Amino acid sequence: MEVTSHRFRAAAAESLANTQLQRALARIPERFVAARARAAAEFGEFEQLRAAGAAIRERTLARLDVLLERFEAEAVRRGARVHWAVDAAEANRIVLDIARGHGVRRIVKSKSMVTEECALNDALETAGLEVLETDLGEYILQLARERPSHIIAPVIHKNREEVTELFSARHRRPRSTDIAALCQEAREILRPQFFAADMGITGANFLVAETGSVALFTNEGNGRLVTTLPRVHVAVAGIEKVVETLGELAALARLLPRSATGQAISNYFTLLTGVRGATESDGPEAFHIVLLDNGRSRLLGSELHPILRCIRCGACLNHCPVYQTVGGHAYGWVYPGPMGAVWTPALVGLERARELPEAATFCGQCQVACPVMIPLPDLLRRLRTRATAERLRPARERLALNLWGCAARHPRLYALLTALAARMLYRLGHRRGWVRRLPLAAGWTATRDFPAGEGRTAREVLRRERSG
Amino acid sequence: MSAREAILTRVRAATAGTRAPPAAEMIPRAAGTLTEDPLARFRRLAEASGSTLDEAASAAVPGCVAAYLKDAGLTHAAVVWPALAALPWTAAGIAAEARAPQTTDAIGITGAFCGIAETGTLLLLSAGDSPGATSLVPETHIALLPRERIVRDFEAAFARVHAERGALPRALAFISGPSRTADIEQTIVIGAHGPKRVHIILVG
Predict the structure, then answer these.
(1) Which end of chain B is more exposed for a tag (fewer CB within 10 A), N or C?
(2) Nearest residue of chain A to residue B194 (CA atoms)
(3) For domain B32-203, which architecture applies?
């Protein structure tokens, strides 16, 4: 999928000017932040649960090779086929080969961010296959030819009128702007497609090593339909998604829905192991699991290692003042918000996403909300440091930071410069108490005033108090 | 080198020498899971997730289903799990067919392997006589759950599957209420692609 993260600033400005988007984003605090807080409070020992979740994920990552091999052996023992893909192109090739091998023409999909990462739909459609997204949000986006703007609420940026337009253009049915009627319309249109499809494609919320199972958490029921009715099921999963035991899965099952939507449990939590039995009337005859690396193994043990704990709940997006203000599309790739500001440079390269680590206020809410305690602000800070060290930042910014660094290493020089600056600010603004336009930093004062201060630095004031 | 070897080699190199942190000693459960009466908790949380509940003695199950269908103004034609085909449906006025459901079937009647009190969740296991589609395709899902098969939490449910079935069945479906979506304007609508109604009859 095309990466447009380099134009984050311009895209963010467009988002700010988009009043419809701003109205949509204004729902986040109540629908997601408050819902999660209520679920956590109702749970009780949610902080202990987060700590357990973080430990489980770290434990997995420390033995990832062993667990992946165990997962593969168990899945194969139960009749699944396991494929390994170094990158997105290889994953797409594998899925295409599976489709061809089974004589597949029509594919139904359940929502999956990892297949967005691979741009799998484009690859399959280019090869002449029919691919239908069946999650309501993803279906709307497929009609609109857009990408998701949130990892669990993909169509959060659209309002019902836009959905009405899309549906009436495609379905040729009486128009309705009633949300329940729109959902019913999508249900009726999509229902026959589940029965007609040869193959279902899903992601995987977790892989369970001890049983060789794929775990899915969904609300709409399309995830179950996609894995029950078609004769072939393909699950695509990042290699980091494995856990060892069903007990660990139970712990993460408590964290994921509460963090994502504030539900104690998703409507459907499905655990899929192996293929249809001889006496069964439904379930896939062939089950393929594609394990995707696409840059993840490089992150193991690196300075960004903790992002591999991520369980894609979206809580950091919902709690981020930047995401809440600019929405997901501005981030320019598949994963937005704080996790996206780490995942994107980690997977596509910092040079293609150097603006994203800057898209943070370091308020720390993402880390507080993260169900597996990923230190997101730290990771963003490390990316900023690397961007500066690798000369990926603008020359003026580097110069300013170098000058500041030089002064900060020389206390006397620093004292002199700050004393001069304090006096200058006082002279510029003491009548109003504010400076309207800062020399050398007009961009900063373009949208706000700078306090003029009292003409003395804190050091000077302290020294006077001590000597006085 | 195959993709498998390339990936595993990189992972091995990166994890070599790292010590796995110890397994979590105790996974917290939702407040009340280990203290509240499981049946009462199951009822409370199943209702909170949008299911309706009733109870019936074993022999009265078909009549109880018929009464629910009548009250809700629903058809008395249903698909049932083959495992439940022998119940006296006809005597209760229900035209029950033990076959895979089609998209025109309005009512699906299933059993349940167990209920989980922690979240008010049903667990259904796939098998030849208990197809997954019956709880999924029809608009109304009626589940018969023996009341002694309510366990406290997910761990207990997994332990029971292991004890009674050995290996995991192909599909474990943990179901908590009717299907729903909040994709359009984050407004919850009940009845997305799965059932619009889940009615649980506690049996026994």
Answers:
(1) N
(2) A221
(3) 3-Layer(aba) Sandwich (3.40)
